[in-house]
Design brief:
The protein is mostly helical. It has seven helices and no strands. The chain has a domain of 121 residues.
Length: 189
């Protein structure tokens, strides 16, 4: 009383392979279509209020300014140069996010609009982040190798931040002394 069970294996059907190839083609076409469609949706970039200079109101050497223009301008000023890939989604979203965050944190085009205290704090942050290799961002320097800072660039920027902080402190002290001489009461902070 043994039963014989026959197991039938599916036969190879060449139509299955062509169906898989067709499915992959359809998937790729759909992916390309979606990418193109989302790239057509423009991110509303803020209109640039282009200042002709970086760090207006600061005393900055032309060599230091050249480093800022090469390595910092695109994310930390109103003079952002948007390359072609910054218009292709989803890369455009990342670029716009990074630029907005960079400007919010430090906008070199609006330097003269910052209080002296904020400028001093920014100078301190610039010195620390450049010296620690945190700025410019590593991903940015991969795409923009000219933005990499050489040790001489780091030293130049660091020394400038220190001298500019001293200058701002002297201005603050001189302004305070002048107000005292003129009999102008100090603000209660």
């Amino acid at each position: 009383m043994y039963r014989l069970t026959v197991v039938m294996l599916p036969m190879y059907d060449p139509r299955d392979a062509s169906r898989r190839v067709l499915a992959v083609k359809i998937l790729l076409i759909a992916l390309v279509t979606v990418t193109v469609a989302i790239s057509l949706v423009r991110i509303r970039r803020r209109p640039e209020r282009v200042s002709k200079e970086l760090l207006p109101g600061a005393r900055v050497d032309s060599r230091v300014l050249a480093v800022f223009e090469r390595a910092c301008r695109d994310c930390h000023s109103d003079q952002t140069h948007y390359p072609w890939y910054s218009y292709v989604a989803p890369i455009s979203w990342l670029v716009e996010h990074d630029v907005a965050a960079g400007r919010e944190h430090l906008n070199l085009s609006r330097w003269n609009e910052y209080s002296i205290l904020r400028r001093q704090r920014c100078l301190s942050e610039i010195a620390n982040q450049v010296e620690d290799g945190e700025m410019p961002l590593p991903l940015y320097t991969v795409i923009h190798p000219s933005a990499r800072l050489l040790p001489a660039d780091v030293d130049l920027v660091f020394k400038w931040t220190q001298s500019e902080r001293v200058r701002l402190t002297r201005e603050t002290v001189a302004g305070s002394a002048q107000r005292d001489r003129d009999g102008i009461p100090r603000r209660a902070d």
